[in-house]
């Protein structure tokens, strides 16, 4: 049963976290700190689903089906809500709900082991962990669906409810192709700690489905008929898992530090190993560190492993272990608050009055964008894309080529050009007059061009 009366404190924690995540995300969007990569891309896909079309994201390319990039059919679940509330805010609020929901099993398990007050401390510490905050602050991503699934599955593993753990973990296959690694790890744990038959079945389903997804399903939708990220797999042997040691070692420490290393006391932590290894195996440095959203799905694994580690301390009656069990919840929350405040994590922006007043500064920019009519084809700077994807067909602004059509409209932001380097944006903008574009409106740091 998802909701029980004794769980009220856990749901209060989740509600508080939802309010914080959503307020931060919506404010980021209103102050134009969201981007086409990735909020705009996901909105285009969800908008297509809501219109009963294939999930085409023009920001990735004309007629580009996002299932040829990553396998995330779970996004279909957002379509009914998008029909009622069309716009990027729907995605951001949904992500806040999903991330906050993952705190319920963590808090509930902590209350079961340590008491109500200690459980609330652990739940808040989890919700403030850097991995969750980074995901809540970085646009929208499909892994928001994975985080609560992993959390509920891990809770069932602690209680040795193997079938229930499998039921919560199996939908991970519909979230993203790399989640098959976590499902396989769950199966491996069940195989070793409980039901061999069920564990072997879970591992088999994860491996077979993961293989088919990467080598058959995604290539079938991909323009190149291949898995687009295969080229990032490193071929340098096992040594690549730990090199460069500095950034990867720091990431490993950062993963267990929010639990004061208590996660290391539980074999449940091993469930994170395949996913972390896959990240470290890639040649793309973006996966190695603590930035972006890549570690969010690991946070419930780490925290529930820590709770299992604290439970194992209960068998020891020494004075030290009693002190650890009693002080750990408060220390975990204090650590999370300290890292948030002094580590510059995203939720600190909620306390910045200037950040909230800043929404008014972007009113002129939004007024300028209103010049572009609904339903128009427009190429935009990355930061402007999600301001238009609700009502326009939006392309990424690059030097025109046979794969990128010349749109009637172009919207250019004069700052924050990620992911394109500034020189490339500048070169594209310089070519616009040669391609028949003229300035029709400017203001608020935005310039609108129209092709005549």
From TrEMBL:
<keyword id="KW-1133">Transmembrane helix</keyword>
<dbReference type="Pfam" id="PF09852">
    <property type="entry name" value="DUF2079"/>
</dbReference>
<protein>
    <submittedName>
        <fullName>DUF2079 domain-containing protein</fullName>
    </submittedName>
</protein>
<keyword id="KW-0732">Signal</keyword>
<keyword id="KW-0472">Membrane</keyword>
<feature type="transmembrane region" description="Helical">
    <location>
        <begin position="285"/>
        <end position="307"/>
    </location>
</feature>
<feature type="transmembrane region" description="Helical">
    <location>
        <begin position="84"/>
        <end position="107"/>
    </location>
</feature>
<feature type="transmembrane region" description="Helical">
    <location>
        <begin position="198"/>
        <end position="221"/>
    </location>
</feature>
<feature type="transmembrane region" description="Helical">
    <location>
        <begin position="250"/>
        <end position="273"/>
    </location>
</feature>
<feature type="transmembrane region" description="Helical">
    <location>
        <begin position="327"/>
        <end position="347"/>
    </location>
</feature>
<keyword id="KW-0812">Transmembrane</keyword>
<dbReference type="InterPro" id="IPR018650">
    <property type="entry name" value="STSV1_Orf64"/>
</dbReference>
<feature type="signal peptide">
    <location>
        <begin position="1"/>
        <end position="25"/>
    </location>
</feature>
């Amino acid at each position: 049963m998802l909701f029980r009366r004794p769980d009220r404190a856990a749901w209060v924690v989740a509600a508080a976290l939802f309010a914080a995540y959503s307020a931060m995300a919506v404010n980021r969007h209103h102050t134009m700190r969201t981007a086409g990569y990735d909020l705009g891309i996901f909105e285009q896909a969800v908008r297509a689903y809501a219109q009963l079309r294939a999930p085409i994201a023009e920001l990735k390319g004309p007629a580009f089906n996002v299932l040829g990039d990553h396998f995330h059919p779970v996004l279909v679940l957002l379509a009914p809500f998008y029909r009622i509330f069309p716009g990027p805010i729907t995605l951001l609020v949904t992500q806040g709900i999903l991330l906050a929901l993952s705190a319920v099993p963590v808090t509930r398990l902590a209350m079961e082991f340590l008491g109500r007050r200690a459980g609330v401390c652990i739940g808040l510490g989890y919700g403030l962990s850097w991995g969750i905050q980074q995901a809540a602050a970085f646009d929208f991503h499909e892994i928001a669906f994975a985080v609560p699934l992993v959390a509920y599955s891990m809770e069932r593993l602690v209680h040795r409810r193997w079938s229930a753990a499998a039921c919560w973990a199996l939908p991970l296959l519909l979230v993203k192709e790399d989640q098959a690694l976590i499902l396989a790890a769950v199966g491996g744990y069940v195989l070793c700690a409980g039901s061999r038959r069920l564990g072997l079945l879970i591992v088999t389903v994860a491996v077979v489905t993961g293989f088919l997804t990467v080598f058959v399903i995604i290539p079938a939708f991909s323009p190149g008929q291949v898995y687009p990220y295969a080229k990032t797999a490193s071929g340098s042997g096992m040594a690549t898992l730990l090199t460069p040691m500095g950034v990867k070692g720091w990431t490993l420490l950062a993963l267990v530090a929010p639990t004061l290393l208590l996660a290391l006391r539980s074999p449940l932590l091993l469930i994170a190993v395949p996913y972390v290894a896959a990240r470290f195996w890639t040649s793309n440095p973006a996966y190695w560190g603590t930035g972006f959203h890549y570690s969010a799905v690991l946070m419930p694994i780490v925290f529930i492993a820590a709770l299992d580690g604290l439970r194992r301390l209960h068998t020891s009656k020494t004075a030290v272990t009693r002190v650890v069990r009693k002080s750990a919840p408060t220390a975990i929350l204090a650590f999370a608050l300290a890292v948030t405040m002094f580590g510059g994590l995203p939720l600190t922006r909620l306390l910045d009055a200037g950040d909230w007043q800043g929404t008014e500064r972007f009113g002129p920019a939004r007024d300028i964008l209103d010049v572009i009519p609904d339903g128009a084809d427009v190429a935009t700077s990355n930061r402007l894309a999600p301001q238009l994807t609700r009502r326009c067909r939006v392309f990424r602004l690059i030097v025109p080529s046979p794969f990128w059509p010349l749109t009637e409209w172009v919207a250019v932001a004069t700052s924050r050009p990620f992911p394109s380097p500034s020189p490339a944006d500048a070169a594209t903008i310089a070519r616009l007059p040669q391609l028949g574009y003229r300035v029709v409106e400017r203001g608020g740091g935005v310039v609108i061009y129209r092709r005549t």
